[in-house]
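pasting for ref
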Amino acid sequence: MKEDKIERLLRAMENPSDFTDKELEQLFEDEELRDCYNMAIKAEQGFKLRREQAEQRPQAGYQRVWLKVAAVFIGLIMLSGITIAAIQYIRYTEDKQAVLPAVATPIPQSVAQDKEPADTLRTFENEELEDILSEVAAYYNLRTQYRDEEIRHIRLYIKWNKLQSAETMVARLNSFEKVNVKLDHDLLCAE
């Protein structure tokens, strides 16, 4: 019953023209409904006051803009720092690899002379280990051997720089969890 009265009060507040003066007077004779009405009026006044205060403070919007500009600036500085660190790391690893002596099989001169610099990088995308090792072995004049038939069909994504030694490529292949390749003189053995 109380909910019906409150619902009628809310409808009367929204559309007072739908009610006669007598019906409105009957609604306000109930003390609880009068209290509800007064609370609703105070809440509406509070919302209006808050809205007016927000309109009178446009400088708060400028503060938000400055905070966003500062956040973007800090983000750019961090991104620049990360980029510089990445470049330094790449240079360091390239220098470290250049210092390592090339042991094992050198690249045949006839093959090295025929290759253009653009052909020195090869990306294997989702290719079987058997295909990868076949191409690597052919390039370095090596033989291949598989001690487990399942290892032939493991699919990998790996980049190969043909200017690097066969040992380097074997080490990169061995960084995969299920791959174990050994280089023994002129034999690539996958286990």
